[in-house]
Write a structure and sequence with these properties.
- Pfam families: DUF1993.
- The chain is mostly helical.
- It has a single domain, classed as dinb family like domain (Four Helix Bundle (Hemerythrin (Met), subunit A), Up-down Bundle).
- The protein contains 6 helices and 2 strands.
- Strands 1-2 form a two-stranded antiparallel ribbon.
- The longest helix has 27 residues.
- The N and C termini lie far apart (about 40 Å).
């Protein structure tokens, strides 16, 4: 079996975004029960120099879009502004998931050694192969913002656990090996 650029990007992004959507739903319900409003969540951050939750959610979506675009996918959603409420964050995730679902493996190509270059707003420029781009830049950027959003929710008090972060792993659970009730 040959592992493609699609295999190591699109399913991982979809799993992470679905988990984030579930975390946001749990946070909204917990907030309603505990007097934590949407605006308090949206503006919460881990440290003064870090982005707030709404930006972390948007950046998670943007990272899931940016990598496939740099690898050849087209028609990406814009995601230009932070959401102002939970419905908006969920809409960004849903729009990103719908776009990811429309990507075919061929859209990302099969040449893992082809050149991928990109420039950052601060003037730094990077040149790498497609596979090194995914491994060393795209995946870490996606997971950084995904974990930051999770951590902000935990910081506010939402009772999230590892199952909320990697719940998709249950599809691989060997029968008879789950925790007993």
């Amino acid at each position: 079996m040959t592992i493609t650029l699609y295999d190591i990007t699109i399913p991982a992004y979809a799993n992470g975004l679905r988990a984030l959507s579930g975390q946001l739903a749990k946070a909204l319900a917990w907030g309603a029960e505990n007097g934590v409003g949407e605006l308090q969540f949206i503006g919460s951050r881990l440290a003064p120099d870090m982005f707030p939750l709404a930006t972390q959610v948007r950046f998670t979506c943007m990272q899931a879009v940016q990598a496939p675009v740099r690898l050849g996918a087209t028609g990406a959603p814009a995601l230009a502004d932070d959401a102002t409420d939970f419905a908006g964050m969920q809409a960004q995730i849903a729009e990103t998931l719908a776009w990811l679902d429309a990507i075919a493996p061929a859209d990302l190509g099969d040449d893992a050694d082809r050149a991928v270059g990109f420039d950052l707003p601060n003037g730094m420029a990077f040149d790498m192969t497609a596979v090194s781009y995914v491994r060393d830049w795209a995946q870490p950027q996606f997971y950084f913002h995904l974990v930051a959003a999770y951590a902000v929710l935990r910081h506010v008090g939402v009772p999230l656990g590892k199952a909320d972060y990697v719940g998709y792993m249950m599809q691989y659970l060997r029968p008879g090996t789950g925790p007993s009730a």
